Amino acid sequence: MAEGTGRPGAYRKGIERRQQILDHAIDLFAEHGVDGASLRSVADGTGVSHAALRHYFSSRDELLVEAYREHERRHSSPEDPAAGGPVAQMARSADRNRVVPGLVQLYATLTADALQERHPLTREFVQARFSRVRAELADAVALGQREGRIDADLDPADAAALVIAASDGLQVQWLLDPDGVDVRRSLELLERLLPSRRDIGGGGA
Amino acid sequence: MAEGTGRPGAYRKGIERRQQILDHAIDLFAEHGVDGASLRSVADGTGVSHAALRHYFSSRDELLVEAYREHERRHSSPEDPAAGGPVAQMARSADRNRVVPGLVQLYATLTADALQERHPLTREFVQARFSRVRAELADAVALGQREGRIDADLDPADAAALVIAASDGLQVQWLLDPDGVDVRRSLELLERLLPSRRDIGGGGA
Questions:
Q1: Pfam families from the xrefs (chains A, B) (predicted)?
Q2: CB–CB of B162 and A35 under 8 A?
Q3: Which tens digit of pLDDT belongs to each residue from B85-138?
């Protein structure tokens, strides 16, 4: 952080200011969507200059990625991530996202940007995120197989990619047609392939 | 078409020119991606001025939508759309798309744009497309239920949304990690829920 290097407390203040900007950006994205929240409106709302904002986030891509990362950090649950099985995990995550349509939009924007050459930072974030979530869900599938709930001949990696894809795609369809699509009901069809533990509501391992 | 109104053959010539622009745009998107193909490069490649291009496509959104519509028209199969069952339909479509990653990218861009207020034309196209494809697949599921292949207690609309979501989401994951995701294998897991007709390869109804 260049701002105030050497002054006592300046580093901590920089961290706090960065966090204020992120909090405000998330609020703006949630309320007005990604297109409706310019870098300038994020700066204005936190009382920093546009130049100061660029000090904390060197590009719009970086702000979008860090805002989504912060959103996920806030909502990561301390409970056993495998609680309830792989489908229940994605259903909980989809439920959380649908409370704030602007953040489903942010996620869809990050994903589309990641496919374009001009957004290397976004691409790296989205690739790493998919890899991590696929690995976590594949572990949950493998656990279900060891416990005899899930067919042993089903490939955990294939199933993990399928569940994530279904959750992502259903949220997009729902945003475009809230009356025509029921994310949770469609996702629950996957429970027939990948049954959860009985204690799905309990959250215990 | 304003160009040459009143001149004989001008209308037909206008239609041909529009088609040339679309063909070239699809080639550019397929080769360089959506970000890599500016309106200017589309104009340059077809030997029309930027102003003339705007005569045929009043906005970048309109060009993207019409290019994708044309891509789908080219690849719509004359066979019975329900051939092979709902999952097989989406798997064929995903196979076609993966030959041209630029067009998967175009589709992802259209979908992300559709979620933003600033792209009303794209939104209308994507909403209508999802509605139509969901209705077609729901019909295929209902047919499978009448034929006794698919469980009768499964809601056709929920299943249709699920299959489309899975196909869309898997294509995105595959573009970002071609070695880590196998679209067809993951989609085929859905065959366990929604079995195809035996004559899956034959294409007949």
A1: TetR_C_6, TetR_N
A2: no
A3: 888 888 888 887 777 778 888 998 899 889 888 899 999 999 999 999 999 999
Position A205 confidence tier, pLDDT thresholds 50, 70, 90: very low
Shortest distance between the Cα of A39 and any Cα of chain B, in A, equals 16
Q: Do A175 and B109 touch (CB under 8 A)?
A: no
- Could you tell me if A42 and A20 are in contact, meaning their C-beta atoms sit under 8 angstroms apart? no
Question: Tokens 């009356």 identify what position?
Answer: A179
Q: What is the pLDDT of residues B50-93, one digit of tens each?
A: 898 999 999 999 999 999 999 888 877 655 555 678 888 888 88
- CATH architecture classification, A77-198: Orthogonal Bundle (1.10)
* B34-61 per-residue burial string, b: 16 or more CB within 10 A, e: under 16: beebeeeebbebbebeeeebbebbeebb
Taking an 8 Å cut-off on Cβ atoms, the answer to whether B192 and A187 are in contact is no
* Contact residues on chain A for B33, CB-CB shorter than 8 A: 115-117
Alpha carbon of B130 to those of A83, A174, A204: distances in Å?
A: 32, 10, 38
Q: How many residues does chain A have?
A: 205
CATH number, domain A8-60, options 1.10.443.10, 1.10.10.60, 1.20.120.1460, 3.50.50.60: 1.10.10.60
CATH code of the domain made up of B63-192: 1.10.357.10
The angle formed by the CA atoms of residues B203, B69 and B104, to the nearest 5 degrees, is: 80
Is CATH 3.50.50.60 the classification given to domain B10-58?
A: no
Cβ contacts of B193 on chain A, cutoff 8 Å: 189-190, 192-193
A interface test, pick of B90, B136, B158, B179 with most A CB neighbours within 10 Å: B158
